[in-house]
Amino acid sequence: MGWHRELLVGFDLETTGTDPREARIVTGAVIEVKDARPLGHRQWLADPGVPIPADAVAVHGISNERAAADGEPADRVADALADALVGYWSTGVPVVAYNAAFDLTLLTAELRRHGLPSLRDRLGGVEPMPVIDPYTIDRSVDRYRKGKRNLEAVCAEYGVRLDAAHDASADALAAAQLAVAIAARHPKVASLGPAKLHDRQIEWYAEWAADFQAFLRRKGDEGAVVESAWPIRELADV
Q: Is the pTM for the entire model greater than 0.90?
């Protein structure tokens, strides 16, 4: 039947910024999906402990006042999100995140920031997997398609409905449904088991990073460095 017809868990964070090592969680969501149909979901609102910049508020709509009044402490939200994801990985359920290297790196940084066990520690020393990242997969299987590769654009390409972009629950659901749609269009993706697909995405992301870095350097940015780690980047400078 293929992994895309089995249980998947969509995951998304809305945050204070665009640097996953520095930004903080504002909202987070996990949603169970089977055969593209949503089942239960959970969402968290955090008080990030730092001001939410105006440009971030403009994206996700969570004001500083709302976060302070209604949000849970940031460490509690990070801990709960980590436990939720680890619970799925522990039973072999794939976690789907669009641009996973951002969300999982940010969650990892938050856990370290608050002195909490890492995802790997919670899994008994095993790397978090399987992760399915429609962003990475789509860039590999349809490399030369023109146009944007953000969630809205790729959902439109694959006919996936996205009701409210930059709402964590909506984005998590769209990511999971997008993974299903990509696998349905590309049998070679559907034919891979989740563990093998995870490994292939590590390779695909590294290949993209090398190509993009070479492109930037040819364009004159001789010092350009594009990070190649997926799904979690190094946190040496956190």
A: yes
